[in-house]
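Bug #77: duplicate submission created two jobs. Keeping one. Sequence:
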Amino acid sequence: MTMQILSGSVLLLACVAIHVFILATTIASFISLRPWLTAQPHLRRWLIILGVALTAIIVANTIEVWLFAVTVHAVGALPTMADAVYFVLVTYTTLGYGDVVLEAEYRIFGAFAAIAGLLVFGLSTAFLVKLFGRLVPHEIDVNAGEARLTGK
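Kept job's structure:
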């Protein structure tokens, strides 16, 4: 059990580090493109920014799920890699169908996968909320009390 807690903690820290690194890199790229990003509001620019942000989040989550799945399979907690990926995806998203479960001696890995998913989804949500907060006011024309998205 101690080894699972230690391994789970290392995996959790690795997932958070990967996520923070990818989000920080995305933010740094947005900062370096500030003149382009803050130019006249443009719907295409807004969609590109959101597309890049969502792609970064998807890439981060994919790496993290695979990290957990490879570990769960490598320690023998699940017989196939397909089962490991499925189990981690369902657990990471805290959906928890329960159709694939770990043996009692490996269950702590499942708990750490759920905690990792919860933390990184929270980071992703905060990132997107801040991004929307920065983008949307620049992209909305509020003349005469009417809000509309500019399509220039």
